[in-house]
Amino acid sequence: MKIATWNVNSIRTRLEQVSEWLTQNPVDVLCIQETKVVDADFPRSQFEKLGYNLYISGQKAYNGVAIASLQPLSDVSIGFQSVLTDIESEWDEQKRVITGVINGIRIVNLYVPNGSAIGSEKYEYKLGWLKILREYLQALLKSSPDICMCGDFNVALENKDIHEKANPDKHIMSSQPERQALREILTLGFADAFRKFTPEEGHYSWWDYRAASFRRNLGWRIDHHYLTPELYERAKSCIIDVTPRKKEKPSDHTPVILEV
Question: 2-259: CATH homologous superfamily?
Answer without folding.
Answer: Endonuclease/exonuclease/phosphatase (3.60.10.10)
